[in-house]
Every structure is written in C-alpha cells, then in structure tokens.
Write a structure and sequence with these properties.
Elements (H helix, E strand, L loop, with lengths): L11 H10 L3 E5 L6 H16 L4 E5 L2 H15 L8 E3 H13 L6 E2 L2 H17 L12 H4 L2 H16 L4 H10 L3 H17 L6 E2 L1 H13 L3 H8 L4 E4 L7 H12 L3 E6 L14 H5 L6 E5 L8 H11 L9 H4 L17 H17 L14 H13 L17 H14 L8 H9 L7 H24 L13 H9 L2 H5 L3 H19 L8
Parallel strand pairs: 1-7, 1-8, 2-3, 2-6, 4-5, 6-7
Helix pairs in contact: 1-2, 2-3, 4-10, 4-11, 5-7, 7-10, 8-9, 10-12, 18-23, 20-21
C-alpha cells in the first residue's frame, strides 16, 4: 500500500474506476505499484466532492494499515469529517453497533492482549478449582498456560466464526473425527460468556463484534439504517485481499443495504492467510451481476528488470482473477537488482551491512534505506547485528511483542504478584526473577548474601527458641533460604532489619508489592 505523489495523474484504467463507482460496485485488480491506493485516494476525493466528505469511508483489514492510510486520505480530501476517513473493519463494526444502540450500551472491543489475559485468567481459574479434567492429556495445564496455546484458541474461535460453525458443531466434529482437543476447546469456548458473567456481556472480541454488526445491519429498519450510516453511501476497501470471510460478510451485508462497495486488491500480495485472511474471497465477494471488474493497466514502480523478477516468483504460484494483472507493463524508473546468497544467517547479515555501508558511502542516508525481512521474528536479530556494526537501525515492529521485553514483563509481573492475579503467585521462582530483573538489579553475589543473611538470622532465632523450649517439646527446624526470601519480600519489616547494602532494593520491591496488595480492590482505572 503506497501513496501516489500529490501530482499523480490517473491513467485511463484508473479513471474508469471512478466512472464505474458512480454506477455501482467495483472490484479493482492491480499489481503492486499499479496505483491502487492512489486511485482509491482519488476515488474518495471524487466522492467527497460529489456528495460530501461523510458520504465515503475507507476500510482496511487491520488498524495499522488504517492508520497509515488515514492522514494521506484526509489531507487529499481537505474537509472536516465526523470521525476518521479510514478505519479498520473491526472499528467500523464497533461504530455500527454503538450507533444502533443509540449510545445506551457501552460496547467494548477487546484487543488481542486483553483477550489473551481474560483467557489466561479463566484457564488458570478452572485449574485452581479442579474443574479442568475434561482437557485431554495432550493439552495439560503446562500447555494451556502458554501464550501460544491461547493464541491458537483465539484463532480457532475466529475460524469457527468465519465458517459459521457453532461450538456445539465443533464439539461434534471433534467426536466424529476423534479429535478430543476440538471437543475440549469447544466446551471451554462455549463456557466463556457464562464464566465472564453479565459485567462482560458487551466486551466483544473482533469476531463477536463483526457478527453483532452483521445482525444489526441486516435487521435494521429504515430509521435505524439512517442512524447507523447517516450520509454514508460508499465504502472503499484497500488491500481487500487480506479480509477474512467474516469481514467480507459484513461488507456484503452493507452492499445489500444499498452501500456502494469499491474493493481494491491483488491476491498475489496477500499476507494474512495465517490469521484467517482469504484472498480467494476477493474474487468471489459481491454478486457477479452487480459488480464491475477492472484491472489497472500499468505498474509505475520499476522497469522490465523488475517485471522479470516479479514474474519469476509469481509464476510459481497459482493465479486468482484477471491474468492481465501479471502482464501489466512496468513503466517506472530503472532499478538495480543484485542477488547474494549467504551460507548462514550471520553471513547474510554481514552482506546486508556491507551493502548499506557502500550505499551510505555513495551519499545515501541511512534513514533513506530499508531492509525487508521475511517475518517480524527476524527483525530483532538483524537490528542487533546492524547496531553492533555501528549502523543505526530500528523496526516498526520488532521480533517480539512489547509484553515480552524484560522491563515490561517484570513490571507486569510486579503488578500481577502485587494484586494477586491468577498465574502470578508469590513463589521462589517469581521472587528470584523479580530480584534479578531490571527494577531491582540484584546480581548473583548480592542475592546470595541476602539469602545467607536471612538463613543465618533464622538459624539464630530457631536455636534460641530450641534452647528455651520446655523439656520434652519437639525441636524446631530452620526454614530454607528460599522460603525465607519469599516471606521477606512480602514483609518489608523483615528486610528493613537487615544491613541496607544488601536489602535496600529488596525493601523497595516489598514496599511496592505491599502497596499494590492494599489497592487490589480499587477499580483498575484508578
């Protein structure tokens, strides 16, 4: 998705998109660099000039792409609007549901991290309560406590929504195909609304929100339709090849209620198949009798050398839609393409670093160069390698989520332990990790000194009590250093009695945990 220059001149095929959109639905096929987003921007400007800026909205599959698109489209339109011109499909669904309720319901879209935390708490709760015996051995609690498992569980629920499969049907499929994992997952997912209770009735994940929006639109009266859509008459869909079947159902439901849909896409560049995106839906969506198919005729990035390279790769995969898309001539400037093979990841990184340095030596700034990697997980290793070679580098999305960075992870652990969240018990391992973490920064020697001092004081106290015990009374044994450390971190008074050079930072940690514990019943927004 790239913006054209402000002075970008539309070619004949791009102009035909604007003309066709005035008559009805349009499906626009175009190779990367053919000006799909530039044409979309021109379409939005044309619609805004004809019917007002609020008559058209741009939808994308994700919030990130909507954010990238939003400012450019708004600047091109140059007129105030009620809300952003570009939204994710989930954000649009949220707007529909809220508008239909007249603001009487507080509808909350649960983000991925929030949904993951809810599932983690529910899974931990049923384990603590001893009611998790229905899970098969292959999905023991050591597996169910993993974030990766919860991600798969969320994806399973989303795919069921895409395919209109109820959890009861999923359980039956599991029994008929001897997949106990499906049966157990269906039972758990079906119980989530009941477990969350009425207070979470309007907390919806993206799939639930889309389904509710579809039901609202399809059953809306004429008055409700006006309330939901207002002056809206057109939806322009960017990167439509990345939409899931459920997202397409929402778009088609809008089309059935008279909203014109103009969808731009290229199945060759689909990137969300692993998360439910269905590029084939781009060619199937909307009735063939009511949609006009248009293929953009030229590519404006690269020359014949780039065309041959792209053809070499796309020729190895199946094609969906108009064959003319891959045959569009390249009319851009010449590009320099070089091929290099590294025998290892390190050698590959070295080759990249050398190339960046050579280009920088020829006057190209580091901020004018970009490195594209196959997946986000590779970005962090490459950045570390480039930085070690004194090449400034950063990534818009690093190879791991923010919650997995040491400082963030320790902060979340401190809060979780302090307020007593499920899965954050005060244990020897959690205390050891917190003391060694970035907020207390205990090294091995200091931690060992603290343990030895706690153990020494315990032995002295126990010896004194044993000396004073009544004749015939059992002797008391000293507790382990690990147990004493756990007790000390939950009781600052114990640590305050120790020499400051070994206890000061531990006292700070214990004080914070105590303050959090006293605040555990306060609303989370305080």
């Amino acid at each position: 998705m790239t913006f054209g220059h402000p002075a970008f001149q539309l070619d004949a095929s791009q102009h035909s998109v604007l003309d066709a959109a005035r008559r009805g639905h349009v499906r626009v096929w175009g190779a990367a660099g053919s000006g799909k987003t530039a044409t979309l921007t021109a379409l939005v400007v044309d619609a805004a000039e004809r019917s007002g800026a609020d008559s058209v909205r741009v939808l994308t599959s994700t919030r990130r792409t909507a954010t990238l698109l939003r400012d450019g489209v708004a600047l091109a339109v140059g007129a105030p609007t009620h809300g952003p011109l570009a939204r994710s499909v989930s954000s649009f669904a949220h707007q529909v549901v809220v508008a239909a309720s007249g603001g009487s319901e507080h509808i909350k879209l649960i983000a991925g991290g929030q949904h993951d935390a809810l599932l983690a708490e529910l899974l931990a709760g049923e384990h603590v309560d001893g009611v998790d015996g229905y899970w098969p051995e292959s999905l023991g609690y050591d597996v169910r406590s993993l974030r990766e498992f919860r991600t798969q569980l969320r994806d399973l629920a989303a795919r069921c929504a895409d395919e209109r499969i109820t959890f009861a049907e999923l359980a039956e499929l599991g029994r008929s195909t001897d997949r106990p994992e499906w049966v157990a997952s269906a039972r758990f997912l079906a119980s989530v609304p009941e477990l969350l209770g009425a207070s979470h009735a309007n907390d919806l994940d993206p799939s639930e929100l889309l389904i509710r929006a579809i039901n609202v639109i399809s059953s809306a009266t004429a008055e409700t339709h006006r309330t939901i859509f207002g002056p809206l008459t057109m939806l322009a869909i960017d990167d439509a090849h990345d939409l899931s079947p459920l997202q397409w159902r929402l778009i088609e439901t809008c089309a059935a209620r008279g909203i014109v849909v103009v969808a731009f896409g290229n199945p060759d560049t689909a990137t969300t198949s692993f998360r439910g995106g269905d590029s084939a839906s781009f060619g199937r969506a909307l009735s063939s009798e009511t949609v006009t198919d248009i293929s953009l005729e030229s590519v404006y990035i690269g020359d014949d050398v780039m065309a041959r390279l792209v053809a070499e790769f796309t020729g190895r995969i199946g094609q969906q839609g108009d064959p003319a898309v891959r045959k569009a001539p390249y009319r851009g400037s010449a590009v320099d393409i070089r091929h290099s093979v590294g025998s290892s990841a390190v050698r590959q990184f070295d080759a990249i670093a050398r190339h960046l340095r050579v280009r920088h030596g020829h006057g190209v700034g580091f901020d004018e160069m970009a490195v594209v990697v196959r997946s986000g997980s590779q970005a962090e290793a490459l950045i570390a390698h480039l930085v070690s070679a004194n090449i400034p580098a950063y990534a818009e999305t690093t190879g791991r989520p923010l919650r997995d960075h040491p400082a963030v992870r320790d902060l979340l652990t401190i809060v979780g332990v302090g307020i007593g969240m499920a899965g954050f018990a005060v244990t020897v391992d959690s205390v050891d990790a917190l003391l060694r973490g970035p907020f207390t920064r205990f090294d091995s020697l200091t931690l060992r000194s603290l343990r030895r001092r706690l153990r020494s004081d315990e032995i002295s106290r126990v010896a004194a009590r044993n000396e004073a015990r009544p004749e015939g009374a059992p002797r008391e044994s000293a507790r382990s250093a690990a147990a004493l450390l756990v007790e000390a971190v939950t009781n600052p008074e114990i640590l305050e009695a120790l020499p400051p050079h070994i206890s000061r930072r531990a006292v700070n940690l214990a004080t914070v945990l105590g303050a959090l514990g006293r605040s555990r019943h306060l609303p989370i927004d305080e």
